[in-house]
Every structure is written in C-alpha cells, then in structure tokens.
Amino acid sequence: MKLLVVLSLVIVAIQGANVRHQRQFPDDFLFGAATAAYQIEGAWNEDGKGENIWDHMIHTNPNVIRDVTNGDVAADSYHNYKRDVEMMRELGLDAYRFSLSWPRILPTGMANEVNPAGIAFYNNYIDEMLKYNITPMVTLYHWDLPQKLQDLGGFANPLISDWFEDYARVVFENFGDRVKMFITFNEPREICYQGYGGDLKAPILNSTAMGTYLCGKHLLIAHAKAYHMYNKEFKPTQGGQCGITISVNWFGPATDSAEDQMAAEIKRQGEWGIYAHPIFSSEGGFPKEFSERVAEKSAQQGYRRSRLPEFTEEEKTLVKGASDFFGVNHYTARLVSATLYKEAVPVPSLLDDMDVGHNAPDDWATSASSWLVLAPNSIFNALKHLKERYNNPNFYVTENGWSTYYETGLMDDGRVTYYRASMESLLNCLDDGINLKGYMAWSLMDNFEWMQGYVERFGLYQVDFSDPARTRTPRKSAFVYKHIIKHRAVDYEYEPESLVMTIDEGH
Ligand code: NOJ
C-alpha cells in the first residue's frame, strides 16, 4: 500500500514536470529585447544631432537626476552598435525593439532639414540586424522630443500632430523598405502624465490640472495621423504594420466590494484607458466613467468646460481603430481601494480626479525601483482584461523587466525569478486564446534610467559606465533568457555552467 502511494506520487510529480515542459511557445512567437535612443546611444551632439528635451533639461539643471548623471554618452551605442547586434545574436533574439532619435534625424524637429548622418547611423544599425535575421521593431518616439518643438509647446500644441506626421513620413521613406514593424509612441501615460501633468520626466511641466489631458489628446491625434499616412502611402508597397505602445500595469480591486471594483476601474481608465479606449474600443473617445468624473469635478471646481478636452466626432473617427496591434509595456501591479492607502495629491490633477488609493502586498518581491514589484500572473491579468474589453487585437508585450542595483552584479537571481514568472504568465495568455505575438525584455543592456540615472539597472547585460569602452557583460539572466528562447519553454532546473557567452550556430 505504502509503495503504491509513493509510486502514484512519483507519477503525479513526473506528469507535473511534463506539463510544465509541454507548455511551449510557438515557433513564430517573437522573442526580443528592447532599448530606447536616449537611454543607450550617447553621442548627444555628434554628427549634426539636435538637442532634445532630456539634453536640455539635464544640462540646464543636472540635479534633477538622482545620481547627477546624464545620457551624453550612456552606453555609447552610437559607436558600439555592432557589439549590440552581437549581443542579440548571443541571446538568439528573433527581434530587437529600439527607438529613433527624432532630433538625430531632424535636428530642429521640422522635416525641412534631414541629417544624413542620422539616417546613415540607423541604416547601419538596421542592416546589421537584418544580416543576422533579427527583426527590427522601431519606435518613432521614446521621449526625446527636439527641444525646438518643446519651445513651441511640444505636446501641448495641437500642431504636434502635423510635425509628428512629417517626421514619421521621413522615417517610413528611409527605413520602411526594411523595417516592417513600427511603433509611433512609447507610453503616452509617461509622456503626458509624468512629463506634462507632473514633474517626473522631461519637460517637467507639472501642469497638474490639464497637462496630462491636453498632451494625451494631441498625442493620440498625432499617432492616428501617422498611422493613416502609413496605411495609405506606405503599407501597400512596404507591407508592414504600425501600432502604439501603452504602459498597462495591472490594477485589481483590493476587495470584492462594489466600491473597490469601481475604484480599480477608474484607476485603469485614468492610468491607461484614456489612451487605449480612443484607439481600441468600438465606440471610440475617452472612457465613459472617467470622462464623467473629470467633467463633474471640473464643474465643481468652477471650470466652464471639462479639463479633459473631448474629441470632435471627426477626431474620434480618425483615432478609432488606428492601430495594427496593441503594444503593451507591462511591469507591475497594485491593488486599488476606494477608501484606503490614499496620499495627498495636487488639486486639480489626474490623481485627484481618480481619487483612489493603492497598495502592493508585502509578499510581492521588491526590485531596485520603488514602483516595481513582482505581482502574481500580472501579464495575464492585464492582457485578459484588454482582450475582453477591446475584442482581442494582436498584442505584443513590448517591454517587461526587473531592476537591480549595480551592486547586485552579474548574479541577478531576482531578475531570473521575474523573467520566469513572466514566461508562465505569457503561456497562460496563449492558453487563454489571447492574440499575443511576441515579447521584448527590457532591457538588452543597462542604460540611463531617466530620473534614476544609472542607479537602477535593467540590463540582461551589465554595462560598465566607468569604462570609456562601455564594456558589456552578460548577467545570469541573459543565459536563462537565451535558454528559454532556444527551447521555447521554461526549464527551472537550468543553471548556466559559467558566464561565458558564445554565439550559437545559425545566429
Ligand atoms: C518603460 C520605459 O519605456 C523605459 O524607457 C524605462 O526604462 C522602463 N520602463 C523601466 O523603467
């Protein structure tokens, strides 16, 4: 009898292990890694590049950055791009997501003056990837607006949509023959809320009442104009896709009460629904409950119209459906309460409009970034919600990753745990029928983490920022990710034998 129990336990255990191993990613699932121009390129004023809002902000006021550093040299990818592609080959990446610096291509922001050295740099980068069958995924805007356009109001000026459309045309004309995946904007929430409604990113406008909303509306129109232009003028011959990336962290209710459920819904709408709904919902426009709330608060505050500027019918139609895929940057989660965990916030502001509190339970692992915790199955929770709300568009997770301090060095077990948990959550998405097509790890290498400078490190490769050569060294997580990509599955037993990296045959 005892033997029987033991035997059946062994069988169950083996089956369990098999089930785990059977959960495989399809061969055409795109595994990649991501970076952004200002965070890696350096060469801030080389070969005709114009000044961007980060150059300007930091050179004017260096103390806004935690360790008083900047992106002047960063990982120096402008000079190390061949090494970057070598790292992609070492990892066996299918794709690489990177961004173009608008002022490197158009130094003043306007399309009357194109910088040939900027075009040449990106041509070289792209061609080097293609040589090794790595699919380039190109973000047109990852936060580095030409300063000259900021001087004219940046995203607070409705003409930004024309300026962006002109820039996008230059991009499609020059790179669209080889690049088949374009992302217009990276993270509208961070551009608009953190940069315009707050002081957490350049241009630190801190215009709390309306900054977020004004920027949001203009950005969405800019995205839509570029999308339609690509569709009409380039897609027929180039045959690529054009989408947008929105940061979608998961916000679930702290309890099952109706108040907390509504609080979580309002939080989701205020954080990312205001960008996703106008594009991906069937009715278009800003999400209903949130719009009503801002309108109501605005009236109470004595405004003659809502601080959230509604779209005209024409604009609504322009924006609705304007994306070939939904790029999701997902990192973390919070539990939302209607009454608890509230903090003092400026009035009026997006935060006051939402008027909810949130919390991360103590047993969710913490990273080097205050906002980043490991929440159970949170990619799945986010994508399942988006699938149901927006009729299951094609999704790419365009960023996901974990921060450590420099001191953690190469043995980054926290990151390994995080990536493995992410893989399980991705597999849950695939099992559920979510149209998830790919996943980009943030980041290929350590880079300039915005206001946190070089304090918080996200790289699969460590970068030595004190070394003029900016030497890159693979961390343990690089080997684990490589193993996952190669086997299209998560093997919990896998431990790299050494941290010596090689390029596998065929890469
Ligand atoms: C999202 C942003 O797109 C990226 O630039 C940033 O470094 C990561 N989050 C990590 O904070």
Automatic annotation (TrEMBL):
Biological processes per GO annotation: carbohydrate catabolic process
SUPFAM superfamilies according to UniProt: (Trans)glycosidases
Keyword Cytoplasm: no
GO molecular function, one term: galactosylceramidase activity
E.C. no: 3.2.1.21, 3.2.1.46
Record's keyword terms, sorted: Glycosidase, Hydrolase, Signal
Signal peptide: 1-16
Catalytic reactions of this protein: Hydrolysis of terminal, non-reducing beta-D-glucosyl residues with release of beta-D-glucose; beta-D-glucosyl-(1<->1)-N-octadecanoylsphing-4-enine + H2O = N-octadecanoylsphing-4-enine + D-glucose; beta-D-glucosyl-(1<->1)-sphing-4-enine + H2O = sphing-4-enine + D-glucose; beta-D-galactosyl-(1<->1')-N-octadecanoylsphing-4-enine + H2O = N-octadecanoylsphing-4-enine + D-galactose
Stretches of the chain forming a coiled coil according to its record: none
Pfam families tied to this protein: Glyco_hydro_1
InterPro entries from the UniProt entry: GH, GH_1_N_CS, Glyco_hydro_1
Family to which this protein belongs: Belongs to the glycosyl hydrolase 1 family. Klotho subfamily.
PANTHER family assigned: GLYCOSYL HYDROLASE (PTHR10353), LP05116P (PTHR10353:SF36)
Protein name: Cytosolic beta-glucosidase
Taxonomic lineage of the native organism: Eukaryota, Metazoa, Ecdysozoa, Arthropoda, Hexapoda
